[in-house]
Amino acid sequence: MGSSSSMKMEWGPAVCMVLIELFTTGQMLLTKVVVDAGLFVFALLTYCFFLGTILVLPLAIILERYILPFFDTSRCIDT
């Protein structure tokens, strides 16, 4: 048998793909139930986008903190 790190490297992508499929299926089922109950489709899309933003924003801030420490507009303007 291999070491535990090689097992993680081998099974990691498969586990991630299964989780993505489960989340996608769950989202589709919830969308069908909510729309059949009478929620306006554009309201559902708005809620999904806001939820995605709220969940991804802290991760993006933490991971990108050292890549773009500041934004300087003078770099964007050609003079």
Which residue ranges are poorly predicted, with pLDDT under 50 across at least 5 consecutive positions? Answer: none
Helix content: over 70%
The run of helices and strands is HH
Distinct helical segment count: 2
Number of strands: 0
General shape: flat
Major sheet: size, sense and barrel closure? none
Class from helix and strand fractions:
mainly alpha
- Overall pLDDT metric: 83
Estimated share of beta-strand residues? under 5%
Please tell me how large the radius of gyration is: 20 Å
Taken together, the total number of domains comes to 2
The CA-CA distance between the termini, in Å, is: 62 Å
Please describe what this structure looks like.
The chain is an all-alpha fold and 79 residues long. The protein folds into two domains: 1-37; 38-68. The protein is built from two helices and no strands. The protein has helices at residues 4-37, 41-64. The protein is flat, with a radius of gyration of 20 Å. The chain starts with a helix and ends in a 15-residue tail after the last helix. The mean pLDDT is 83.
Question: What's the helix and strand layout?
Answer:
Elements: H1 4-37, H2 41-64
Keywords: Membrane, Transmembrane, Transmembrane helix
Transmembrane segments: 12-31, 37-63
Organism: Oryza barthii
Give the tags.
membrane; transmembrane helix; transmembrane; about 80 residues; mainly alpha; 2 domains; WAT1-related protein; flat
